[in-house]
Design goal:
With 128 residues, this protein is of the alpha/beta class. The chain is built from six helices and five strands.
Length: 128
C-alpha cells in the first residue's frame, strides 16, 4: 500500500514539481491550490504527509495548519512547509515538522524532508 501525500500550493509549477517528485517515490498524491481546497480534500483522504505553501489566496498555509492541528483526527499528520526564503515563515510558523525553501534545490530538500519526517527508506527513489 502506497503512502498518500497532500500537496497544497497556489503555484502550479511548485505543485507539479512536488507532486511529480512524490509520485516518482511511490506516493499517491492529492493536490489543492489553497487551504480551503485542502480542507475539502481532507474530507476524502487521510494523507500520511501534508506539504503546504504558506502564502496562498483564500486560506493561507498558516490558517490551514491551524485548522489541521485543531482537528484531533488530523493533528498527527506531519506537515512540511514549502515557501520562499524571504517570507520569513521559519521565524513565525513553528508547528510544522519540516520546512523547505522554494528558491533552493527543492527536490534535494524534499528528499531530506521525507527522510526526517517519514523515515530513511521513504526518501530513496522507488523504495516504497
Amino acid at each position: 500500500m502506497s503512502l498518500v501525500a497532500l500537496v497544497v500550493d497556489d503555484s502550479m509549477l511548485i505543485r507539479h514539481t512536488v507532486c511529480r517528485f512524490l509520485e516518482e517515490r511511490g506516493f499517491t498524491v492529492e493536490s489543492a491550490t489553497n487551504g480551503e481546497e485542502a480542507l475539502e480534500a481532507l474530507k476524502r483522504v487521510r494523507p500520511d504527509i501534508i506539504i503546504t505553501d504558506i502564502q496562498m489566496p483564500k486560506m493561507s498555509g498558516t490558517e490551514f495548519i491551524t485548522a489541521v492541528k485543531g482537528d484531533p483526527s488530523l493533528a498527527g499528520i506531519p506537515i512540511v512547509i514549502v515557501a520562499s526564503k524571504q517570507s520569513g515563515f521559519e521565524q513565525t510558523e513553528k508547528r510544522a515538522n519540516f520546512a523547505i525553501f522554494k528558491d533552493i534545490n527543492i527536490e534535494g530538500q524534499l528528499a531530506k524532508a521525507l527522510e526526517v519526517v517519514l523515515g530513511q527508506k521513504k526518501a530513496a527513489k522507488g523504495s516504497i
